[in-house]
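Tutorial, part two.
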Amino acid sequence: MFDDELTPAQQRVLDYIVGFSERHSGRFPRGSQIANEFGFSSSSSAYEHLLVLERKGYVTAPKEGGWRRYALTDKASGRRRGLPLAGSIPAGPTWYAEDAEVEWLSHVTDLFPDTKPGDYLLTVDGDSMVGAGLHSGMLALMRPNVAPKSGAICAVWVAGDGGTLKRVYADGEFVRLVPENPNYKERRVGAEDVSIQGVLLSAISVTEFN
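Running the prediction step on this input gives:
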């Protein structure tokens, strides 16, 4: 890896900082805000990321009156942003793993204009959701860390079984995973065995992307 290349985790932090700066008239987020956004246990983890971003030339932090004043460099502001492609279905919450092998797609933010830091893409695999307009090979934009509404289409990880894309309904101590194809049966799984990996926002065909 070249010295200025970013891991997926570092890229996500940089994207958040860039987006925050754009929304707040150039203001840089505090360490506590970065930590809260990514679920870090303390602000020190956020500052560790900032030190790496500084070393790689995306952040500057000159001392002013004993304090470090963080700011984005031109390199960061001009960096082309994209979305991570997780594959056909996410196998777990790998986005914060420093060594996660994730493909990044540029130019897709033009097709998905309302993305936020943390959003990612999946490739739809199979025909269980064709009734919802999701066909095999389409790119689906997913948003993690949000509570799905009843009946929302979600990327779901079922312990001991794997990932799937289905409508999700809470059912007491269980979760119903409902397909959109009469050839498939719905499943009822214990809630403790279900992890919501993301909520579907929109999807496009690969021909639109190309």
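Helices lie at 8-23, 31-38, 43-55, 74-77, 206-209. In part three we will examine how such features are distributed along the chain.
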